[in-house]
Amino acid sequence: MKILDLVTRTFRYTNHTVRDSEGHTHPGPPHDATQSVLEIVTDEGVSGYCFGASPDVIAQVVKPLVVGRDPLDREKIWHHLVEMQRGNRGLSDRVLATVDLALWDLAGRALGQPVYKLLGAARDKVLAYASTMCGDELPGGLDSPEAYAAYALACKARGYQAFKIHTRMPPIAGTPNPREDIAICTAVREAVGPDMALMLDSFHYYTREDALRIGRALEKLDYEWFEEPMPEHSMSSYIWLTDQLDIPIVGPETAEGKMYTRAEWIMHRASDISRAGVFDNGGITPVMKIAHLCESFRVQVEIHSPGAGNLHALCAMAWPGKYYERGLLHPFIDYERPPQWLRTIDDPMDDEGYVHVSSRPGLGQDIDWDYIAAHEVKR
Predict the structure, then answer these.
(1) Domain covering 3-113+365-377, topology
(2) Strands 354-356 and 125-132
(3) Antiparallel, parallel or unpaired: β 300-303 and 354-356
């Protein structure tokens, strides 16, 4: 089998979220937006797909490197693309991820198997946690400790056994505010009771002192973990914080360096729980390397963000990943409605809080090609 072509298709859809000036996602008025899908085409009539492609980088950088190769040589292709990242800033880990995911999807479709089975299945469902959007100033949204508490109760009623808070952050006036973070976390714990697992992902640029203050409050509230309270490029700050606190510290999440950076954090005891994600680290291929690295050191690894690729990776991990991150959630957003380019959501959840991986070939996405064709933007 040989790769004949890499094709990207861009299409319009109606988006119901907006980003503030700091990049945080919130509910917003409906507006036009675009999405792209990558198709890797082979000479045997089998293709693989991934959404979120960067059409120009795919066409100009990736395509010349992979056309003519065997699409099952994922490891060889991935390493070549990693080598080409040096001096090519456009070739981001997100671009690597779209190519790697499309190759895994292609392999599953060619063999008639879901990706998690190709990886070596360990389970077919995983416990989810409700992961909120960052706080806002929307009445009835996530604008106060009481609002977070009410929403945590709604998520508990839906079946979630765990709930993660993203607190209110800039550009909201008066934030970041350690006192408010602690008040939100306290209100949520008091509302849901002692049995629901709770986590905090707070402002990412707190000082050491503020992070320590929040962490000590979370210990008293019996939170499951404390995530990314400081810049991750300062590994020494995380070494200091992890040494000060008993609550598990999670990281790194967004720091560059794939499995190499995670190895350094483990070696230097900069966190208690490692973090990985297909779009953070460059695909399923590096995520599984991180999972095996963490298993070797008996370090828990938690997967960042929802999506088919992360769910298949989680279901191939015999070593925790304990949770699937389901979100970002908000009282004004209907998460159960699939995006317009899919007929079903990637991560259906049962009443006990478990997300079930698709048994369809490849990544298992039920793509609505009629919708894409009807809304395609011609380049």
Answers:
(1) Enolase-like; domain 1 (3.30.390)
(2) antiparallel
(3) unpaired
Closest residue by Cα to residue 49 from 369, 374, 377:
369
The confidence score (pLDDT) of residue 20 equals 97
- Token match 């499309």: residue? 102
The answer to whether 172 touches 137, Cβ cutoff 8 Å, is yes
Domain ranges of the chain: 3-113+365-377, 117-356
- d(CA 187, CA 190) in angstroms, rounded, equals 5
Q: Is the pLDDT of residue 87 over 90?
A: no
Q: Which pLDDT score is estimated for 342?
A: 98
pLDDT tens-place string over residues 97-126: 999 999 999 999 999 999 999 999 999 999
- Distant-in-sequence, close-in-space partners of 157: CB < 8 Å, separation ≥ 6: none
Structure tokens at 94: 């997100």
Please give the CATH topology (third level) of the domain spanning 117-356: TIM Barrel (3.20.20)
Interval 178-210: pLDDT, tens: 999 999 999 999 999 999 999 999 999 999 999
Q: Could you tell me where the beta strands, DSSP code E, fall in the chain?
A: 3-19, 25-42, 47-51, 125-132, 162-166, 197-201, 225-227, 249-250, 273-276, 300-303, 323-329, 354-356, 376-377
Residue positions counted in the chain: 379
Mean pLDDT of the chain: 97
DSSP state of 61: I
Residues 6+ apart with CB under 8 A from 136: 26, 27, 142, 143, 168, 172
Report the candidate in 121, 131, 136, 82 with the shortest Cα–Cα distance to residue 258.
82
Judge contact between 315 and 121, C-beta under 8 A.
Answer: yes
| pLDDT digits 0-9 by tens, 201-241 | 999 999 999 999 999 999 999 999 999 999 999 999 999 99
